[in-house]
Specification:
Blueprint lengths: L4 H4 L17 H26 L11 H9 L3 E7 L4 E12 L2 E9 L7 H9 L3 E4 L8
Parallel strand pairs: 1-4
Antiparallel strand pairs: 1-2, 2-3
């Protein structure tokens, strides 16, 4: 049977034992692009962290300072956190603490120091009082 033109276009496999043709590895062509992309992402992350300051921790003050602010109606929002062991107060106007102006302060309390009467008194004074069972507040 005569060879058809269709069969003539298919190359025959090399004989066994013939070394493979060494050509450019396609994976080697793309590694510079991947490295440049990775470096660009790393530079973008570093620039973002340097240019945008992270949130500073909420400064800790004494309980007497928070109590005085509550009595003078200077607290707009009060979070009772960590089972009543921590108060986080949002101030109506910023205050200087540790050389920086802040609008939130926190204080730690002894176990069972806060009562329902305290919460009602603070709420009656115009402070929005929230209670959280978890210790998930910043600072």
């Amino acid at each position: 049977m005569p060879p058809s033109s269709h069969n003539a276009a298919i190359p025959s496999p090399p004989p066994p034992g013939t070394p493979r043709r060494k050509g450019p590895n396609p994976a080697r062509r793309w590694w510079p692009i991947g490295a440049a992309l990775g470096a660009s992402i790393l530079i973008a992350i570093v620039a973002y962290r340097l240019l945008l300051p992270g949130s500073a921790p909420i400064p800790e003050v004494s309980y007497s300072e928070v109590a005085q602010s509550l009595a003078n109606h200077q607290v707009s929002d009060l979070l009772v956190d960590n089972g009543g062991l921590k108060l986080v107060a949002t101030l109506r106007s910023p205050r200087t603490v540790g050389g920086r102006s802040v609008s939130m302060v926190r204080t730690n309390l002894p176990l069972r120091a806060i009562t329902l009467a305290d919460l009602q008194q603070w709420g009656a004074g115009g402070t929005r009082v929230r209670v959280s069972e978890s210790g998930g507040t910043p600072g």
